Amino acid sequence: IILIGVEKKSMRIHVIVAHPDDAVFACGGTIAKHADRGDDVTVTYLTRGEWGGEADEDERAETRENEARNCVDILGGTPTFLDEKDGRVTENLDTRFAIVNELRSTEPDVVLTWYPDDPHPDHRITSQLVQDAVYQVSTRNLKTEAPPADRPEMYYFGKSWTSFNPSAFVNIDGYFEQKLNGFLAHESEVERLE
Question: Which of 37, 46, 114, 156 is the most exposed place for a label (fewest CB within 10 A)?
Answer without folding.
Answer: 37
